[in-house]
């Protein structure tokens, strides 16, 4: 619930003439922490779920089983610091930027642009190197007519063979059905090239 970060990051508030202090010890440490929740039970020990934002990079941390409030604070700081040092956020595509084009079968035009609903940001290890790859996947060609705003594919980020992030892609324009001769040519092309 990102709309509630302003509440989670309040150092204190008064309700019904009772002053309540936020128990999150990381809020004022310059780490960019803006929430979320601390806790303690006999069974689970001390824990915290924290959210931190630096520039446009947000990390979420959740740990439990610690022996004291001090351990909780120390370990949470270490993990957040390690996370920001070890990973970087890369903007692969800005909001409203065309990510790829998909082939259209039987349309007035042969391709339709694909976009995500917002920017595509990828969190990658600073040591990832060449292991990280990205690809656009869709079932195609897409049969005309094509409506704008329909999910037809995905932008996938892979670490080796493992998919680590998948962002839905949507048609960015409508494509009307083409004339009969264009559909016939597309059918012939699919017949010939589909066998290869």
Q: Could you explain how this protein is built, in words?
A:
This protein has a six-stranded mixed sheet with strand order 10-12-13-8-7-11. The model has no long low-confidence stretch (mean pLDDT 88). 18% of the residues lie in helices and 45% in strands. By secondary structure, it is of the alpha+beta class. It has helices at 5-8, 69-86, 180-193; strands spanning 12-15, 18-21, 33-41, 45-54, 57-66, 87-93, 100-105, 111-115, 120-125, 132-138, 142-143, 151-159, 162-171. The chain has two domains: 2-86, DD-peptidase/beta-lactamase superfamily (Beta-lactamase, 3-Layer(aba) Sandwich), CATH 3.40.710.10; 94-193, Sandwich (Peptidoglycan synthesis regulatory factor (PBP3), Domain 2). It contains three helices and 13 strands, in the order H-E-E-E-E-E-H-E-E-E-E-E-E-E-E-H. The N and C termini lie far apart (49 Å). A hairpin with a 2-residue loop joins strand 12 and strand 13.
In short:
The protein has 196 residues and is of the alpha+beta class.
Q: Which class of the largest domain in CATH terms?
A: Mainly Beta
Give the number of domains: 2
* Number of H/I helices: 3
Bulk shape: elongated
CATH architecture of the largest domain: Sandwich
Residue-averaged pLDDT, rounded?
Answer: 88
């Amino acid at each position: 619930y990102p709309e509630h970060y302003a509440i989670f990051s309040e150092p204190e508030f008064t309700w019904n003439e009772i002053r309540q202090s936020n128990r999150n010890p990381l809020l004022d440490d310059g780490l960019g922490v803006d929430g979320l929740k601390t806790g303690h039970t006999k069974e689970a020990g001390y824990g915290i779920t924290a959210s931190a934002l630096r520039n446009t990079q947000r990390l979420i941390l959740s740990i439990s089983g610690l022996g004291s409030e001090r351990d909780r604070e120390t370990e949470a700081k270490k993990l957040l610091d390690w996370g920001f040092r070890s990973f970087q956020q890369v903007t692969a595509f800005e909001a409203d930027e065309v990510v790829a084009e998909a082939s259209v079968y039987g349309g007035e035009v042969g391709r339709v642009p694909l976009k995500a609903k917002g920017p595509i940001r990828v969190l990658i290890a600073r040591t990832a190197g060449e292991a990280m790859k990205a690809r656009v996947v869709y079932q195609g060609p897409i049969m005309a007519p094509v409506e704008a705003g329909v999910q037809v594919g995905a932008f996938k980020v892979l670490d080796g063979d493992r998919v680590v992030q998948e962002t839905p892609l949507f048609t960015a324009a409508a494509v009307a059905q083409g004339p009969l001769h264009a559909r016939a040519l597309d059918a012939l092309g699919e017949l010939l090239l589909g066998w290869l």
